[in-house]
């Protein structure tokens, strides 16, 4: 019997704030210690989705089994720094910079280390 599955790959979520009108998950808001804020719309949100083959097989060593586990995730994720420009006057400059996932980051099956490591 052959089992089919959707392989792990990158998808791009739409700008969800346009759908529900309240900012959704695609709006970034940062607030400094004085209550001043910076805001930014994220137009595309990348995410990984799909299945990865996972299995185990018997061995003759003390654990009597060997697992091969992986999950769909980012492969060598890269982040880019963006300076937010929609800020209240006098905002702390440190909150202007945010790191977001680079759009070129690839998705793939990432090994899951054993629990004891």
From TrEMBL:
Report which superkingdom the organism of origin falls in.
Eukaryota
Q: Which GO terms describe its cellular component?
A: extracellular region
Sorted alphabetically, which keywords does the UniProt record give? Disulfide bond, Secreted
The residues forming a coiled coil are: none
Location of the protein in the cell: Secreted
Query: Where does it primarily localize?
Result: secreted
Which Gene3D superfamilies does the record cross-reference, listed alphabetically?
Answer: Cystine-knot cytokines
Show the stretches that span the lipid bilayer: none
The Glycoprotein hormone subunit beta domain extends over 36-102
* Annotated protein name in UniProt: Glycoprotein hormone subunit beta domain-containing protein
Please report the organism this UniProt entry assigns to the protein: Mesorhabditis belari
């Amino acid at each position: 019997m052959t089992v089919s599955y959707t392989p792990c790959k990158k998808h791009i979520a739409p700008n969800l704030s346009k759908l529900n009108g309240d900012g959704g998950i695609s709006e970034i808001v940062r607030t400094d210690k004085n209550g001043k804020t910076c805001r930014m719309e994220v137009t595309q949100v990348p995410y990984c989705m799909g299945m990865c083959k996972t299995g185990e097989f018997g061995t003759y060593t003390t654990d009597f089994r060997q697992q091969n586990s992986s999950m769909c995730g980012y492969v060598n994720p890269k982040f880019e720094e963006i300076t937010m420009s929609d800020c209240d006057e006098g905002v702390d400059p440190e909150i202007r910079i945010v790191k977001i996932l680079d759009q070129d980051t690839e998705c793939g099956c990432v090994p899951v280390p054993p629990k004891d490591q």
